[in-house]
């Protein structure tokens, strides 16, 4: 991090009550930013982190959450669209609802929060949008046609956003984690976990902090000239795609 004095920013992380989102929220709070997280399920949060209830599939609840954050911390200057779900199954067993519900949360959910945040960022003439994708978005994964499609869609979102708003001091980037130890991956059968592990050149899975540190850096002034990029945090699994 730069040694310049840090001016606290209003940071919002969706799905920040646990897993990678919570690690990201803590990373920003540790450098003095004003951090809010959205939650669906009320959870005890670390001191100093503001919780606001929102479901990213519900535009009205997103608007209420932003209004709450703006009143407490000012306009959101750093948005991390992290909320995400999986509904893994092979194509022939995947229902249309399995597909559209994952898209609605992971991709349309990101669109909803990015749109809401961009109003304040345009006024501020600065901002950072970070979309949490997955190695699965560009690498693909059997059983994840819905999830991979949603995560690949985030790349197009960040790139078109950059072309629309890149001249206004706002960047949008995608962070693509590989296999991170969280509730989402704990649900996978042992055999699947072993299979993934055998493919990761780093020979291990990562902790959520290792994603959080990269997200924090992408949001820093040091990364002001990076936009529309996909940054892998995957131990070499996707080889930069
Ligand atoms: P978790 O399952 O541990 O947490 C998911 C978070 O998203 C929770 O806070 C959850 O809230 C929230 N969420 C889910 N649906 C909604 C919704 N409709 N509205 C609002 N919030 C919602 O996941 P991880 O921490 O592992 O993953 C975080 C992100 O990182 C996801 O986008 C995931 O796809 C991505 N990722 C994870 C990887 C991994 O290995 N773990 C690898 C690559 C990418 P609630 O507590 O209310 O359910």
UniProtKB/TrEMBL annotation:
Keywords: Oxidoreductase
Alphabetized Pfam families for the sequence: adh_short_C2
GO MF terms held by the record: oxidoreductase activity
SMART domains recorded: PKS_KR
Domain Ketoreductase: residue ranges: 9-183
Record-stated family: Belongs to the short-chain dehydrogenases/reductases (SDR) family.
Name of the protein: 3-oxoacyl-ACP reductase
């Amino acid at each position: 991090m730069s040694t310049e004095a840090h001016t606290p920013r209003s940071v919002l992380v969706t799905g920040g009550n646990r897993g990678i989102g919570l690690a990201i929220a803590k990373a920003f709070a540790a450098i003095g930013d004003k951090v809010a997280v959205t939650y669906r399920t009320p959870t005890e949060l670390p001191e100093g982190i503001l919780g606001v209830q929102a479901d990213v599939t519900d535009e009205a609840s997103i608007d209420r959450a932003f209004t709450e954050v703006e009143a407490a911390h000012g306009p959101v200057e750093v948005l991390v669209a992290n909320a995400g779900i999986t509904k893994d199954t092979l194509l022939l067993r995947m229902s249309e609802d399995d597909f559209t519900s994952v898209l609605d949360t992971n991709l349309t959910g990101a669109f909803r929060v990015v749109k809401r945040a961009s109003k304040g960022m345009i006024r501020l003439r600065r901002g950072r949008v970070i979309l949490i994708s997955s190695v699965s978005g560009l690498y693909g994964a059997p059983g994840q046609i819905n999830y991979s499609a949603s995560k690949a869609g985030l790349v197009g979102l960040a790139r078109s956003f950059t072309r629309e708003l890149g001249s206004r001091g706002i960047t949008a980037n995608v962070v693509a984690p590989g296999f991170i130890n969280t509730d989402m991956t704990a649900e996978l059968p042992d055999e699947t976990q072993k299979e993934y592990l055998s493919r990761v050149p780093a020979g291990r899975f990562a902790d959520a902090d290792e994603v959080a540190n990269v997200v924090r850096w992408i949001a820093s002034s040091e990364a002001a000239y990076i936009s529309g990029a996909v940054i892998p945090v995957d131990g070499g699994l996707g080889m930069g795609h």
